[in-house]
Amino acid sequence: MNITKRDFFVSIILLIISAFFFCYVNLSIKSFDEWHSLKYATPDSKTYLDVGRWILGENTFDNAESSVAIRPFFYPLVIVILDSIHPLAVAIFQFTLWQIQILMIYFFCIKVSRLFILSILVSVLSIGILSPIGISLHALTETLSSFFITFSIFIFIFFLEKNSYRYIYAYLLSLSFCSATRPSYIYVYIFSIMILFFFLIKKRKFFYICILATTFLPISLQYYVMKKHFDSYKLSFIDSFAINDYFLSGLELYKRKVEFDANRNLYIRMVRDARREYMAEMIKEKGYGETSKKVKSDLLASLVNYPNESLRQFKDLIIENSMQPSSFITANKNLYIATFAQSKLLLTINIISALFFSVIIFNKKYFAEEIYEKNIVFSLLIFFCIYFTYISTGLTFWQGDRFIIPIYYASIMLFVHQTRMFFAFIRNTNKK
């Protein structure tokens, strides 16, 4: 990638602006001396620490077993290594990843739109998205997952431009690391493998089909850990815990037609605590593998016996989680309200992107065949990643916009791409 003096200067300015804004937002939450205290302030972050200490031999497997069952080892290994360097090393690392994403958005926009002012505007607006900043001081996987997704989109645009298939390899490798960080994205990785396999078959790129298999390596290491300690070929048991603790617990409200009043959360907690005890006893008796199968069986039974209630809760949770404010920026009321608007705006631009895509995909004749095919493949891959993320939020609650943080920047990049393709379609229709 050729970086001009202008781009270099803009990059420096963006880094300075983002650094000041990062400090402003996080200082409104905690004083600088207290930043390190946020690192393991959440229950989830403590489980990553447990796994990391187990990897380094500072914790026994018996003590860390419940955490190892739900947390892939890649991110815990990163944070314990950083912790050994400095108490703020995790925050600095995640701040750096966040800044790199801002730069990737700028260069992506330059490549896609070729409009300098627009690229600066989009980049500055991206800096203003608050939730990725607020969560960056916490030892949680959202920042790293967001980085891998943003990088995968950024690197794929080089394939569209240069037609070099090594960029497809880099795209899949990035998604593989994302899956090893956040297990739910294994489905995005598999979908991408499938789409790109057929695309490469059509292009007769058989060599690249073979080497794509090596992108599975980061995930295979996690599978090895799970097979060795739990005799299960799963990346993680976190899905079973989410279904049990949230979806099946919340479903009791719909099944019993409990009113959504002030006692709703208290009632769910009572049901959840009971289901957690039930699951813990089952794990002791039958192990994680059999317990996971039982939870999936309970879910299937609920879908069969209570289809309306299940679908209603699933729909309500997706809507709720798609438009929630941040749970990490509650100290500053004005910023907290702003995150509520931003999550709604994110959903809006994704809907607009989908509308643009629906027009483009049915008007192939207005594009050159090579350009059309590659851009449709790119769009399908990113749309799947974004909407899969939204759909997966239908299994949980009480998270604010946490689970959609990894797709904030992906959504912006996709919107820029779809807008450019849509206006190219408009120009081509006028010519014909």
Automatic annotation (TrEMBL):
The chain crosses the membrane at residues 7-27, 85-108, 115-137, 143-160, 167-200, 206-225, 345-364, 376-398, 405-426. The keyword Transmembrane applies. This is Dolichyl-phosphate-mannose-protein mannosyltransferase. Keywords: Membrane, Transmembrane, Transmembrane helix. It comes from the Bacteria.
